[in-house]
Amino acid sequence: MNKKRCDWVPQNDLLYMAYHDEEWGVPVYDDQKLFEFLILEGFQAGLSWRTVLHKRENFRRAFDWFDAQKIAAYDERKIEQLMQNADIIRNRSKILACVNNARCFLETQEKFGSFSDFIWRFTDGRPIVNHWQSLAEVPARTELSDLISKELKQMGFKFVGSTIVYAHMQATGMVNDHLVYCFRHGELSLLNF
């Protein structure tokens, strides 16, 4: 039986379909996973998620499986090594932002106990369930993503504009933006958090 998915999912891309079916919109409370999505969303800026998704395993290997402690300690030699890695997106600003954000991430953990506690406090620890009928209704940013973006920037994070933050919120299940006819909308709405 064919499952009805959100319109943005390419039906000829099995990796993308699996990402939509198994990950996108599922609430994430694990700090390392939240950090991974924050970094990947930053690398996506100006590109398609498909590009990043197909390089995700390469990113994981290149960036020490998104271990914030290790990334925070990257030096110029490591940054140059990443700049030579054709298997990832080689953008110096984004790589430097990744190192910066690892440091800010660790500071956030120290201050709030965990990054999860920090980020999920904006939604009282529960996903916001939207009921969009069409892709045209889904916003690229919201007042809440504006607020989170502003706070992240004040804390020193880079590549955390409101659109990137909203994409992070969607990916990590802070909002359920699956379209109402998508099989995942109902499944995720029924979960108890």
UniProtKB/TrEMBL annotation:
GO terms for molecular function: DNA-3-methyladenine glycosylase activity; metal ion binding. Hydrolysis of the deoxyribose N-glycosidic bond to excise 3-methyladenine from the damaged DNA polymer formed by alkylation lesions. Keywords: DNA damage, DNA repair, Hydrolase, Metal-binding, Zinc. It comes from the Bacteria. Zn(2+) binds at C6, H20, H178, C182. It comes from Caldithrix abyssi DSM 13497. One of its GO terms (biological process) is base-excision repair. This is DNA-3-methyladenine glycosylase I.
